[in-house]
Amino acid sequence: MTSRVLEGRFADPDREPLLGNADVTPPESDTDAGEVAYERMKNKRNSDGGDGRNALSFEEAVEQAGFGLFHGILLVVCGWANASDAVEILCVSFLLPTARCDLQLSSSDIGLLTASIFLGMMIGGYVWGYLADQQGRKRVLVISLSVNGVFGALASLAPSFWLFLLLRFVSGIGVGGSIPVIFSYFSEFQPRCRRGAMISGLATFWMAGNILAAGLAWLVIPSTGLRFQLGSLDFQSWRLFVVLCSVPSISSAFIFGLFMTESPKFLMEAGQEAEAIEVFLKMFTFNNRGSAKAFPISGLQSITMCDNEEIVMDTKLHRLTHKLKQVLSPISKMFITPLTSRSIILFILFFCISFGYVCNY
């Protein structure tokens, strides 16, 4: 009975279809569009893990991880590293009056010594920044802080001005890496609505480092009882002050190396989704202590930062040229047409702020 009714219904060519003017057989263009839509849906399922899970973007995952104890601990750890950079930079300013006689410094020598750490920072800032994008924020922080602390401490044993100058220059290379990377590392854990306030809080530790350096100088340098003989080297109080100024950097390197995690944004950019989820899980656990709330992150969207091009380089010159282009590429991106004027204005502002700040010392 039912089959006869259906046959009669579809056998009548004048009867309107139930869905309006829809044709039973779609045109070829509609079929192609349906195939495209199906492929897009299939690709989205694959990007979501193939099991229907909801893949979150980086910003969404940071929001879901919450805000609380983890960020407080992170602020203290990163703030201590930021303060260690301030201590290392101001170290020379406090020791010059005493070291001038010991190292027999002229006025030009004092100028060179003061500029050495900043020249190292200029070189180190760009090199470490590039490496942080390639090798990870945490690894670069550990190495740069170690370079800062170790060579800063070794400078206390320098018997001559030129060796002291060289060691302070290398220490400046380490400082140039830790200052910009620490802010990038710290900001990549912050929810968008709190990012500005937390970065401002991190910046206040720079002033805390200034106070720490001034306090150490006030306690150590005038103390004549701290002077002793180390072989042929007259180890005066200013040399002990140099050693103490390196302790914050070395301790920060140990803390980052032993206890801190890699930036989740870098892990997502590197395609390490499982490791990134582990970081978000740790953030969620710290921020929701005592809560029965379930961990909401099951998948992450991949972040593609650059094209992986296969380039054939048959000579060392070609490989060196290609690597140099990669290193200089971030600079050229700052001068793309929509960003050119903004970048120039920011360069001028930062130069003026730095110039005014250093002139105080």
Question: Can you offer a commentary on this structure?
Answer:
Helices cover 70% and strands 3% of the residues. The termini are far apart. Helix 5 packs antiparallel against helix 6 (137-154) and helix 6 packs antiparallel against helix 7. A hairpin with a 2-residue loop joins strand 2 and strand 3. It has 361 residues and is mainly α.
How would you sum up this structure in a few lines?
With 361 residues, the protein is mostly helical. It has helices at 2-11, 28-47, 58-65, 69-102, 107-135, 137-154, 161-187, 195-220, 237-259, 264-269, 273-287, 316-333, 340-359; strands at 55-56, 228-230, 233-235, 299-300.
Comma- or semicolon-separated keywords:
single chain; 361 residues; mainly alpha; two-stranded parallel sheet; two-stranded antiparallel sheet; 13 helices; 70% helix; 3% strand; disordered N terminus
Chain-wise SSE layout:
Layout: H1 2-11, H2 28-47, E1 55-56, H3 58-65, H4 69-102, H5 107-135, H6 137-154, H7 161-187, H8 195-220, E2 228-230, E3 233-235, H9 237-259, H10 264-269, H11 273-287, E4 299-300, H12 316-333, H13 340-359
Parallel strand pairs: 1-4
Antiparallel strand pairs: 2-3
